[in-house]
């Protein structure tokens, strides 16, 4: 079900410094998500989204609000989108809310970091190229290089191979693009072959960075939903989680140290950074254009 709501504030300030994603502002145009990723932390009770997968709330006044808020900002900083839901979920194909928001961001000359699991982002390639006169980054969340496993874990999202192909197009157009390799699910994805395939495919498709996390979070409603899906998709695996992590929020892979060492070596071999180079203000090229 899709329902429109009126938002009071669109851009929230991100606690500084943001060493992971380089954001100053965060923007969520929707509440809820159609991708139905079995591990999503946004199901947690603290976010107060009751029916995360089935009811999508659309911020109907988002574009008007965004224009008003950007006009009042004295400091230009990177606007992130994709933290609480995917800005390119299937609904976006019809509503074009993210596309319209990017148009406003381009108009005001703000930098942007888009995080997504969809190749639908390519529809806004021209706008992203315009934003990239300041700074534009697109990170694709990729936790497995295997399409079949991806369909189980992220049933509503674009298959992984389509994300990689979109990454190559963006990279070829000069957009900063890479991978958010998180979460890496314990006992499912935390093996050397999976990490190797992700890094190598990222290299082939033009990624300049990969942001890793070898583990996952689990709390309240998120844990209940995830365990329900484990029982259906990976019978017997729930018990391993309960024994390994109990009720803990942070659930690092038992192989995290070994995988991190392998990851660092692979990134060095392929000249891929293990972090995103953030927006640092007006560039020398921009200064010449002023």
Descriptive report:
- The chain is α/β, with parallel strands linked by helices and 290 residues long.
- 38% of the residues lie in helices and 16% in strands.
- The protein has a single domain, classed as Alpha-Beta Barrel (TIM Barrel).
- The protein has a 7-stranded mixed sheet. The chain has a 3-stranded mixed sheet with strand order 1-5-4, with no helix packed on it.
- It is globular, with a radius of gyration of 19 Å.
- The C terminus is likely disordered.
Which helices and strands appear, and what pairs or packs with what?
Layout: E1 2-5, E2 11-13, E3 25-27, E4 30-31, E5 56-59, H1 62-72, E6 79-81, H2 92-95, H3 97-108, E7 112-116, H4 125-131, E8 136-141, H5 147-153, H6 160-172, E9 176-181, H7 192-204, E10 209-212, E11 215-217, H8 220-233, H9 237-245, E12 250-252, H10 256-270, H11 284-289
Helix pairs in contact: 1-3, 3-4, 7-10
Short description:
By secondary structure, this protein is α/β, with parallel strands linked by helices. Helices cover 38% and strands 16% of the residues. The chain has one domain: Aldolase class I (TIM Barrel).
Could you spell the SSE succession in H and E letters? EEEEEHEHHEHEHHEHEEHHEHH
Structural class: alpha/beta
Number of helices: 11
Radius of gyration: 19 Å
Indicate the CATH topology.
TIM Barrel
**Broad shape:** globular
Give descriptors for this structure.
three-stranded mixed sheet; 290 residues; TIM Barrel; 38% helix; seven-stranded mixed sheet; disordered C terminus; alpha/beta
